[in-house]
Amino acid sequence: MSAMTKKAKNFKKSKGGLYLSIGSTAFGALSVAKQAKLARQENDTLRLIDAAVSAAAIVTGLAILYRELKRLGDDDVLLG
């Protein structure tokens, strides 16, 4: 394993990596909101269901990332 690969794997488990993941996941919520708005305007039930499922996936992803962030915070004595 190269040093660059090792750094990338460690970044995923760092606070900065988790914040970046949370931000990018939340940014994906904007496209889902646009998709839902367009589906409502066009009365497209199938697209609306797709947007709802995508929104549920985003909420679940954010919850998992938040749990990982709290788990990292448990190791930090200053965070309590």
Number of helices: 3
User: Which regions have little confidence, pLDDT < 50, spanning 5+ residues?
Assistant: none
User: What about the largest sheet?
Assistant: none
Number of domains: 1
- What is the overall silhouette? elongated
What fraction, in percent, of the residue positions are helical?
Answer: over 70%
* Element order: H for helix, E for strand: HHH
The termini sit apart by: 35 Å
- Give me the Rg, rounded: 17 Å
Tell me which oligomeric state these chains represent: single chain
Beta content: under 5%
Number of E strands: 0
Q: How confident is the prediction overall: mean pLDDT?
A: 83
Broad structural category: mainly alpha
What can you tell me about this protein's structure?
- 86% of the residues lie in helices and 0% in strands.
- It is built from 3 helices and no strands.
- Helix 2 runs antiparallel to helix 3 (45-75).
- The longest helix is centred in the last third of the chain and has 31 residues, at 45-75.
- The mean pLDDT is 83.
In short:
Keywords: Membrane, Transmembrane, Transmembrane helix. The chain has 80 residues and is an all-alpha fold.
Describe the SSE topology.
Blueprint: H1 3-12, H2 15-42, H3 45-75
Helix pairs in contact: 2-3
Keywords: Membrane, Transmembrane, Transmembrane helix
Transmembrane segments: 45-66
What keyword list fits this structure?
single chain
